[in-house]
Amino acid sequence: NSDLQLQYQLTKFGEADLLLVARDITRIVRLEHTRQDFVANASHELRTPLTVIRGYLETFLDQELPRPLQRGLEQMQQQARRMEGLVTDLLLLSRLEASQHISDEHPILIQDLIRRIHEDAEALATGRGHRFELAIDTDYDLLGQAGELQSAFSNLVFNAVRYTPDNGTITLRWQVDHKGGHFSVSDDGIGIEAMHIPRLTERFYRIDESRSSASGGTGLGLAIVKHVLVRHYAHISIDSTPGKGSTFTCHFPPDMVVPVRGVEAS
Ligand code: ADP
After folding, report:
1. How many CB atoms lie within 10 A of CB 31?
2. In the chain, what percentage of residues exceed pLDDT 70?
3. pTM listed for this prediction
4. Taking CB atoms and a 6 Å cutoff, what residues make up the pocket around ligand 1?
C-alpha cells in the first residue's frame, strides 16, 4: 500500500532495552487531506458569488437612496467585506497547510518589510493617536518566503493596533542573538489573561467575540501566524499582562538568519 502512513515512537527502558511502536495513521492523514481540500475548494467557490454581490452593492450605493435603504446596503457591504476577508484567510491557511516547510528560502530584506508593514499599520491606525517605535538590527536579514512573512508580521501588528486603546505605543523589533533572529510586536493595550494564551493560535479562538468582530478580525490571524512560522522552522511566544499590554515574538533559528551583504569595495 503506497499510501500507508506510519507514526513511530521509540522509548528507551533502562540501559539496553528499546521499545519501537508503529501506529498506522493512514486513515487520519487521509481524513485530514479531505478536510483541507474541502476548505480550499469551498473558499474558492465562495469567492465568485461574493465578488458579484459586492459589485452590485457598490453600484446601488452610487445612487441617491432613501436613508434606511442606504443604511441597510452599507451594512450588507460591511458584512460582504468581512466574508471576503474570511475567504481570503481560509484560502491562505489551506495553502499553508498543503506542505510542511517552505521549499525555497530567499533572503528577505526584513528592514524593508518592517517599514512597509509600519506604513500600512499607520494607515489602519489613522485618527487613533498611536505612536509607533522601531528597533531594528540592520546587520541581519532573514531567510524565508517574503509573502508569507508579510502576512504573519502584518497580522501581529494589525492586532496590536486593534487591541490597543487610542494613544497607545506599539513597538516593532528585529533583534539577533546567539539563539537566532527575533521579530516582536509590543503594545500597551488591553492585554490577555494567562489562561487564554495557549489557545490563541487555534482557528477562530477569540477571547471576546463581540470586540474581535467589531474590530474587523477574522479569528484566523494567529492561526496563520503559527502556520507561517512552522513552515520557517520558527515558533511564537506570547507574553502579556491584562490591562498593561502584550508582546508577540517570532523566534527564527540561527541558520535562517544571514548577515546583510555589505557594500563591496571597488
Ligand atoms: P482576531 O481576528 O479575532 O483578532 P486573531 O487570531 O488574530 O483573531 O487573534 C485571536 C484573539 O487573540 C483575538 O480575538 C484577541 O482576543 C486576542 N489578541 C490578539 N492579539 C492581541 C493583542 N495584541 N492584544 C490583546 N489581545 C489580542
Report:
1. 11
2. 95
3. 0.86
4. 155, 159-160, 163, 187, 189-190, 192, 200, 205-208, 212, 217-222, 246
